User: Fold these one by one.
Assistant:
Number 1:
Amino acid sequence: MGLISSAPKPGFFDQYPRFYSSSVVGATPERLNERYRALISSNEQLIREKTILDLAAHDGRWSFAALKAGARHVTGIEVRSHLVESAIAAAREYGIGAERYQFIAGDVFDQIALLQTNSIDTVFCFGFFYHTPHHMLLLSKIARLNPKHLILDTAIDPSTTDCIVRLTKEGVDRDANSLVGQPGDPLYALVGTPSRNALETMLTSFGWSLSYYDWHRAGIGNWRDLRDYRDGSRVSIVATRR
């Protein structure tokens, strides 16, 4: 198989460097480009000519990547209005026609309920599943849309094989975190990180079959910005309706 170089490989986002500065969340070239290979490039058949829903779309990086991969239309939902503005600005700067995308500023749970059943082919849920304690509610709202595929990238709790969700609190003041605090503690949001067993149990209960992306066979030489994938505390999954 030869030697694997530790030098970073040229990647998709090197052509669109705006995304290296439009957010500080996971925006290093090595991380963004390897995640592009895992989440977009390896799933082009689920994206090209498809309608995409991007949950917690952040600065629009993955919506934009889907559009460049040939998606027919992308709807992005993001609660922070300044990130929605950044997503729209990026699409305009890089020449994406306005008819091909819609970015909605609002809560994911509220806005997804307004979408029509059978209007979405593929759902992106990247970096959001572990920023809520309402996993089954989220999956039920996704299932109502009747998409053919769900591409899910999430942190998990690798410390146990039990079927659990580990609840913690995170500050709402960071763009990487949930924005919705608790009534009794408004500066902090309650979030839940599932174990691998819990994640699989929740997904299969809605009739999804699962396929994991194998990060250890991706030819990565330098794991500095990808340690969570290397150590198994984050996974990438394609879920397909049976």
Number 2:
Amino acid sequence: MRRTKEDALQTREQLLDAAELVFSDKGVSRTSLQDIAQAAGMTRGAIYWHFKDKAALFNAMMDRSTSPIEETIGRVGQEATHDPLTQVRAAMMDALTRIATEPRTRRVIGIAVNKVEYVDELSDVRARHVRVHLNCQAHLEKALKRAQKLGLVAPQPSARVMTVGLQALVGGLINTWMLDDTLFHLTRTGAQAIDLYLSGLKAASPSLVSSKPASPSRCRVSAQPSRLKPSGL
């Protein structure tokens, strides 16, 4: 019984390994389960034994590589630390470092960023992407709310807006670096960009981020030509 279970786990890992390589080479939409089975030296039946469809296989591939990143971010905001900004920074840098230094993590993130089309058969893939994004957002927002209560960052804008901006920053760094990793050093540039962003939150002022439109009286331009006195020349 133990050997049978070990064999099944080994087969599952081999299928995930093959899926990574084929997805990376052909893209997710253009890859069939037969392609993956052939790359793994197995039959489609072996795939269906472990995964109900291609989306389930893709999500399992993502979980295997990105779970450590998600677990690290999941710990953000859970402890009543007196330095939540340091906790937020550490989580973001952990994600960038793993992507930059771990080949499998880099390959899988590259597939997720550049090789996925959210067509009907991959609706579950999109659902997972949204779920993970919102979960990370919730933890980061909780930490930034605590930072506001401690007076470490400005009370405005809201912690939600701060979180959305931070996620956009880090996501943009990853997406651009995945296109061409010679454009910049992911971890060094990432650290500088994150520090600059967090520093900006500390210095933020409600007057600078207010959404209140300017008073019409201040924006009014006279339609009458100005009356200039003769110069006497």
